[in-house]
Amino acid sequence: MLDALDGTTVWPDRLWMTEAQAACLVHGADPGWTPGLPAAAGLVLTPDGPRWFAPVADEAGLWLEGDSGPAGASGRTATVLEIVGHLLRVEREVARLTQELASRYEEIDLLYTISEILGQTVRLEKAAQIIVRAVSSVVGARRASIVVHDEGSRVLRTVASLGIPLGRAGLIDLDDPHSVAARVFRDQRALIGDPLDAVLVSVGKEERGYQGSAFMSVPICYAAPGAPSRCIGVVNLTDRVGGDRFGATDRKLVMAIANQIGAALENARLVERERHQERLERELELASRLQQSLLPKPLVLAGIGDVGVRCLPLESVGGDFYTFSRLGQGGVAVMVGDVSTHGFAAALLMASAVAAAGIHVAASAEPASVLAALKDTLAENLAESEHYLTVFFARIDPARELLTFANAGHPHAFRIPANGLPRRLEATAPPLGLSPAPIGSVEVPWVPGEDLLCVWTDGLTDAANERGERFGEWRILEVIRARRAEHPEMIVTAVMDLVDRFARTPSDDRTILILRV
After folding, report:
1. Structural contact between residues 197 and 224, judged by C-beta atoms closer than 8 angstroms
2. 2 CB contacts (<8 Å, ≥6 apart)?
3. Would you give per-residue pLDDT tens digits along the chain (517 residues)?
4. How far is CA 1 from CA 4, 12, 19, in A?
5. Is 381 exposed, middle or buried (0-12, 13-18, 19+ CB in 10 A)?
6. CA gap 335, 485 in Å, rounded
7. b/e string for 49-87 if b means 16 or more Cβ within 10 A?
8. Cα 274 off chain centre by
9. Cβ neighbours of residue 82 under 8 Å, at least 6 residues apart?
10. Which residues make beta-bridge pairs with 63?
11. Cα 390 to the chain's mean position, in Å?
12. Residue 413 to residue 407: CA distance in whole angstroms
């Protein structure tokens, strides 16, 4: 700007500036000497003779030097003082506007970076890492981190960091009195620390890990449509390049984009949650198919017996199970069990029980021996999980017209003859996992081709309607009595349809098996 005035008729010889109480040449030819500046405008004796020096208005420390002629002193230099003062004010305003424009550009660039993340399906950690690098680059922070609130807990989890050792990144208790991030999250208010501020530097210095440097922590907020804004995390910045102090401009910039950061992080978190849910559903579907594959199909007994069966878990997997197999001379082995509770833990025990039952039945089809061996096999798992297992096992020998059974606490097992009343096949031992009592067995008559073996779990009898009324055993027995001449599959279908109409919302696994041998 000053070069443009060189050679004009109004421009004085030189421009000086005071630094450390000494004059420094700012513009013009070096005279080879340094003047002693006066307290106010006036003549100063120099090696080149008297020279006129006058301060520039509103510009502390700037002095104009002109010739000592009367016209120059009072005319030309005075005119230039006004011109230079105006030009410097213009230059300051241009610099301010340039800085503001640069700040706006940085803000727009940051918003563009964040908007790109919003348009992508990226993991939370990846989105946070992109954001933390972009923000720290704009404000000149050597170290930065983003922490987010773990839903359902009172901790902040570090999801991205820059320049911070892994040992310091981790979980932050929301009640930690030394944590700046926890304080900002609780108060939902930005905090800027100055290294010269003794209070901020001394409180929790070792715990914070800022090492006495300036820092800036800004809350990250998000407001879902129609919902109030909530804090979901904090962005932390420290160790600023080019002067360890964050200014109002830095704070304004980061706070201006904090909500957009919140939207980007929340979007990434929702995407991550949805992917996790989809993966969980796929795994549950696979687990359900695997569990169902453990259960035999009715074709196993083709030619020697008719069977109808349903096994419907309350969730994707459950604790009810059944199994049946062929024995010599047209005999059949059949088992129905119910693990206490339902869900994954019950399903794991169910899978172990089915696998073990197959092995023990192949070794010996004597009911008491099978259940005793099954109890020994599952003892450790039952003890560790604090579950128990009701199980009914029977061997049907049509050649001898006998049904031999052992019953470990399973309440719903009946022999239904062609004529006469149903007979409950009572428990011969407590449920497996509740008592070390020995397991006994009982023999009852069996009329081949006519008698029915009916076993179900309490998910049917305990099913309740809207009035709280239980379905009960009698309804099941009534359906079986009325349809006992039909194929077992048709009887099972009729029972399940009636239960579904009675109690539309299941509260437990539901299993029923009806067998005619």
Report:
1. no
2. 15, 26, 27, 84, 87
3. 555 555 555 556 788 888 877 888 888 889 889 888 888 888 888 888 888 888 877 677 888 887 765 455 555 656 666 677 677 777 777 766 666 665 566 666 666 666 666 556 567 778 778 888 888 888 888 888 988 888 778 899 888 888 876 555 578 898 888 888 999 999 999 888 776 555 554 444 444 445 556 888 999 888 888 888 888 899 898 888 776 678 777 887 788 777 777 777 777 777 778 888 888 888 778 877 888 888 999 999 999 999 999 999 888 788 899 999 999 888 999 999 999 877 778 888 888 999 999 999 988 889 999 999 999 999 998 888 888 999 999 999 999 999 999 999 999 999 999 888 999 999 999 999 998 899 999 999 999 999 999 999 999 999 999 898 999 999 999 999 999 999 999 999 999 999 999 988 888 899 999 999 9
4. 6, 14, 21
5. middle
6. 23
7. eebbbbbbeeeeebbbbbbeeeebbeebbeebbeebbee
8. 10
9. 57
10. 16, 55
11. 38
12. 9
CA 4, CA 75: separation in Å to the nearest integer? Answer: 20
Amino acid at site 23? A
Burial (CB < 10 A; 0-12, 13-18, 19+), residue 328, is exposed
Place of tokens 């020697």: 304
Cβ-proximal residues to 253 (8 Å cutoff; 6+ apart), any chain: 103, 106, 107, 110, 138, 139
Domains of the chain by range and CATH? 2-96 (no CATH), 119-273 (3.30.450.40), 294-516 (3.60.40.10)
In this structure, are residues 157 and 147 in contact, taking their beta carbons and an 8 Å threshold? Answer: yes
Buried b (16+ CB within 10 A) or exposed e, 310-327: bbbbbebbbbbbbbbbee
Smallest Cα–Cα separation from 201: which of 188, 214, 191?
214
Say if residues 65 and 92 touch (Cβ distance below 8 Å). no
What count of residues does the chain have? 517
- Distance, in Å, from the CA atom of 324 to the CA atom of 515, rounded to the nearest integer, reads 10
